[in-house]
Amino acid sequence: MPVYVWQVKDSSGKTVLKEITAATAKESQDILLADGYTDLALKEEEIMAAVKAGFADKPTIFGEEIEVTAEDRIKSQNKTPQGFISVLLKSIYENKAFFLVLVGFAVWSGYRGHWVAFASLLVALLAFMAFILCLSVPLVYYQRLIKASDWNRWDEVLSLLDTLHHLGKLSFVKVPESELIRNRAKAIVGQGRLTEGLALYQHCEGRPDCPSWLYKLFVGSLYTIAKQYDKAIELNLASIAEKSTPTAWADLSYRYARYKRDPVKARQAMAEADKEPMADVTKPFCIRCFGVIAYLEGDYATAKTNLEEAIEMVEKIPSRPYRDGHLCVARAFLCCVLAKQGDLPAAKKCFAQAKAYLIATDETDLIAECQQLIGK
Asked: Does any domain span residue 87?
């Protein structure tokens, strides 16, 4: 059974993280409520629980295992994406006492002419900096990978995957193989080679971090990249038939609304998604989906409220994966809503903010809809 991670308040009012093994998110929620916890917020659900299985082999440093706790994972979700220099400077700041002592002894040794001690301390200082960079390099490159994938820069994605593959042989920190394969399959499909991408990703089916229901859901995303939306919906439904999850229902709702322009089926799917607790990371996506549904239904006031809320939520999370895509698609639909309401200056501003992304990701239909409504 999956392990659900919740942020809750205990009887003393202290915010804590609880890991609950249960069949469903609702069952884990009921367990916490029965134990007297309040202010429940779901942080990790079925998909994250499955993905964690890819980290089954704990990395070791100097013979010691590194344990990444739920608290470590939650903290990392709220961190601003960083480059090598910022990671190094932050690590130096966090270990400033050790760093200052080391530098102080090195300066003192040099001043006294103890050159062997000075050289040893200098080597230790450089080793410390190299160690920090070694730990951070895979993360920095993975963040670049997500950014490139978000913008459909498929050649860059493949290049970064090659780099991460080589780093996996050298660094203590490794990106799970299934995640690398999935992103490589996405890039191959994005380049127009659907059959090759599907064949590659098939190697992941049945792995601990890619159970059958999740495999089908991810294969559906490959068909979405290939713009074969009926097949994507078919795989989405197959995943739900095997294991009903809020995320799968939310994905199905968005596909019905976004690609089939069917608000009835989209709202029905979101009603199913709402039957289970939704992870915090999924909520902006669902609110954006509600905005698109309301737009298709002609309820422009509700659509505007939903889309603006979805944009505001994600703007506060600089570390969110695929952040640009979420924001730009939401702004494109908000452009359409504002144009329908007669606020053309605001509509044009939204379209200008989204245009570069929409062009890069070949969103021709959405571009045409925006341009038609704002009179371009």
From this structure: yes
